[in-house]
Amino acid sequence: MAYCEQCGKEAGDHPRCAARRELEPPRYCADCARRMVVQVTPTGWTAKCSRHGERTSA
Amino acid sequence: MAHSETVTTTQSDILALARTQVLDEGVGLSESQVLDVLRLPDSELDALLELAHEVRMRWCGPEVEVEGIISLKTGGCPEDCHFCSQSGLFESPVRSAWLDVPSLVEAAKQTAKTGATEFCIVAAVRGPDARLLAQVAAGIAAIKDEVDINIACSLGMLTQEQVDQLAAMGVHRYNHNLETAKSHFTNVVTTHTWEERWETLRLVREAGMEVCCGGIVGMGESLEQRAEFAAQLASLTPDEVPLNFLNPRPGTPFGDLEPMAGPDALRTVAAFRLAMPRTVLRFAGGREITLGDLGARRGMLGGINAVIVGNYLTTLGRPAESDIDLLGELQMPIKALNDTL
To answer: What does pTM read for this prediction?
Structure first.
C-alpha cells in the first residue's frame, strides 16, 4: 500500500494535501506512513524515515 | 448615500493626514489612525499602497534587506502557541530534530549566496538551555569563520545572563515576536504571557543587540486589535518588524482558520508601514498562500523593505531567485553587508 506523504493516510484523491504539497515538505513516509524527521533549510529539505531512509529535495 | 459620503470624507482624511504626518514629518500613525487605515475600502487600496511605498522610500530608502532563516532545533516545544506546528502539545506531524553545526554552516553559505546580509538561527523552545546555547555558540563561531553574514537568533525568552552570552557571541539582532495584540494574546498563547515576551525584548535592547519583533496577522484578531498590535509594536521602536500571515498548520488549534484575504494582508502591510515609517518591515511567513506572486510585488511596492528568502522553518517558500529577480525588476537594490555594520 502507498501512503500520502502529507497526511499519512492511504494515497488517493486528497485535495487539501495536493494544495499543500507545493509549499510543504513530505511529513509521512510514502512506504509505511511513519512520521518522518524533516529538516528544512533555506534552499531545500531532507526527510528521514527510520525504516526507509532519507529523501531530499535535490 | 449620506452615510457613504461621510465615510468617503473620512477615508480621504486619513490618507491626506498620513501624507502630512508620516510622509512629510516622519511621525507614525496612532492606534486610532491605523484603525482608520485598516477600514479603508478596496477601492482605496492602490492609493494606500502608493503612499506607504512613498513613506518607505522617504524614510528608509530603496534598499531591501534580505534574510535567510534556519531551524536549529525543530519541534517538541513545551509552549502552546496556537499557530505553531512545533508545539509538542498538539497533534502536528512535525517531529523533533536538531541540526548539526556543519549543516548550519552550509545553510548560512546558501543564504549568503542569495545576497542576504542576515542569517537567523531559530529554535523551538520556551527559552534556551545550556545545551542549546552551546550549540548556538559553536554554530556562530563556525559560521563567522567561513561566511560573511550578520547573525541573528530567535531562541525564545531569555534571562539577563543569556542575553549577555548571546551579545558576547556577536549576535547582531535578536528576534522575539510579541505575535499579536496584548488584548488577543491569551487567545493565542496560554503557557506564557505577553509581558514575559516584552521583558526579554527590554533585556535585548539594553544589551545593545538590535530588536526584531513582529508577529502574525490573521489569527482571529479584530481590526481594532490589529491596530492595537501595530501601536504596541511602534511603542517598542523595534529595528525590524517581521510581518507574518497565518498559514494554518494541520493539527494546531488554528489549523482550520482560513488564510487572510489578500487585500486585508496588503492593507495591513501599508498600515504597519504608516505606523512605523523608519523600521525594517519584513515580508515573512505565509505570504505565499495569502498573497501569491502578484501580492509579493504589491507588498514590495506597498511599504515592505525586507524579505525572508527561500524556505521558512518548517514550510517551503518561493525560490530565493524569484524574490531576487523581483527586486531587480523593481530596481530595488539589495542592502549590502557593509551598510549594516
So the answer is: 0.94
pLDDT in tens, A2-39: 999 999 999 999 998 998 888 999 999 999 999 999 99
* 3 state SS for chain B: CHHHHHHHHHHHHHHHHHHHHHHHCCCCCCHHHHHHHHCCCHHHHHHHHHHHHHHHHHHCCCCEEEEEEEEEEECCECCCCCCCCCECCCCCCCCCEECCHHHHHHHHHHHHHCCCCEEEEEECCCCCCHHHHHHHHHHHHHHHHHCCCEEEEECCCCCHHHHHHHHHHCCCEEECCCECCHHHHHHCCCCCCHHHHHHHHHHHHHCCCEEECCEEECCCCCHHHHHHHHHHHHHHCCCEEEEEECCCCCCCCCCCCCCCCHHHHHHHHHHHHHHCCCCEEEECCCHHHHHHHHHHHHHHCCCCCEEECCCCCCCCCCCHHHHHHHHHHCCCCECCHHHHC
Structural domain tally of chain B?
A: 1
Closest-CA residue in chain B for A23? B316
pLDDT digits (tens, 9 = 90+) for B144-182: 999 999 999 999 999 999 999 999 999 999 999 999 999
Q: Which of A 5-24 lie inside 8 A of B, CB atoms?
A: 7-8, 20, 22-24
The number of folded domains in chain A is 1
ipTM for the assembly: 0.93
Per annotation, catalytic residue among B153, B173, B197, B226: B153
Q: What is the CATH number of the domain that holds B207?
A: 3.20.20.70
Give the range of the structural domain holding residue A42, as residue numbers without chain letter: 15-56
